Amino acid sequence: MSDILEKILATKKAEVEAGRQARPLAQLEREARAAPPPRGFERALRARIAAGHSAVIAEFKRASPSRGVLGASLDPAEVARSYERHGASCLSVLTDSIYFSGSPADLIAARAACALPVLRKDFVVDPWQVHEARAMGADCILLIVGAVDPPALRELERLARSLGMDVLVECHDGDQLEVALGLETSLIGVNNRDLRTFAVRLETTLDLLPRIPAARLLVTESGIASPEHVRRLSEAGVRAYLVGSAFVETGDPGPALSRLFSGPKGGG
Ligand SMILES: O=C(O)c1ccccc1NCC(=O)[C@H](O)[C@H](O)COP(=O)(O)O
Q: Residues in domain Indole-3-glycerol phosphate synthase (predicted)?
């Protein structure tokens, strides 16, 4: 079995060591203080849901380990504006370069082009990356339970919140969900994709949904590609969605968002 997650995490640790040399923490802290204030990621999701709609976190994703090239020449600013026009509540931007062909520059350009809060989608394993996320203007970071042990997750979460960012904690099974619920954040991501095998099952969300307390907000992630998928998840009570490939692979991501979420609880 190919274990891409292990490979990605090893790459991240090396990148952090190199990053620390190039941009010491004191410099990053200064940059983070000068960054535009956080926009309220969770607040935007909850406002859309309170208005009776699904909340969509629309992802800017040029490529991925499971799908290869999806939209290498997409312009992050244009896509961000289009997502905003077509009803996205928030953006997610991949900032990993080696495996996803993304970059911090993509996040900076996307955020500057719209008023939506932005998730830094990356593999955060070290406090240095949390400061880096805020320095590039991120409003929320992703923490993956399968990537970091629980004490380190708590430390990374505390740091992110102290910098004013929200945290989306991602799990993939019942044991990981217990760890996720041990954090303070309300935003519980359930990734339908097994990051070790790439298998995608929407049942991952449907199985874990009843175990998530009402005060928390489940965000279903990955593999949502048809109105039928949205209908199944919505009927089960899912209100927040993170979608990337199904939008960017069309070459015109904003209208693809409208088409996917055009049902009664659609995001638009
Ligand atoms: O997308 C991948 O192939 C992938 C492989 C290994 C680790 C993470 C990966 N994706 C990150 C994500 O969680 C997705 O980009 C996100 O949930 C959107 O998924 P999709 O709508 O299926 O593009």
A: 5-255
From 191, 192, 234, 245, the catalytic residue: 191
Average pLDDT over residues 245-257: 98
Buried b / exposed e over 198-222, threshold 16 CB at 10 Å, is eebebebbbebbeebeeeebbbbbb
What is the residue-averaged pLDDT of the chain?
96
| β-bridge pairing 217-221 and 55-60 | unpaired
**Known catalytic residue: 192?**
no
Instruction: Measure the CA–CA gap between 55 and 30, rounded to whole angstroms.
Output: 33
The domain locations on the chain are: 4-260
Tokens of 251: 């070459």
Catalytic residue among 64, 192, 222, 234: 222
Contact 116, 88 (CB under 8 A): yes
* Active site (annotated) includes residue 13: no
Residue with CA nearest ligand 1 atom 16 = 222
Residue 30 C-alpha to ligand 1 middle, in angstroms? 32
pLDDT at 6 over 90: yes
- Quote the tokens at residue 216: 């928390």
Beta strand ranges found along 24-77 (DSSP E)? 55-60, 63-64, 68-69
Evaluate if residue 264 carries a pLDDT over 90.
Answer: no
Question: Could you tell me which CATH number the domain at 4-260 has?
Answer: 3.20.20.70
pLDDT of residue 196: 84
Known catalytic residue at 203: no
Q: What is the whole-number distance in angstroms between the Cα of residue 258 and the centre of ligand 1? A: 20
Specify the pLDDT at position 65.
Answer: 95
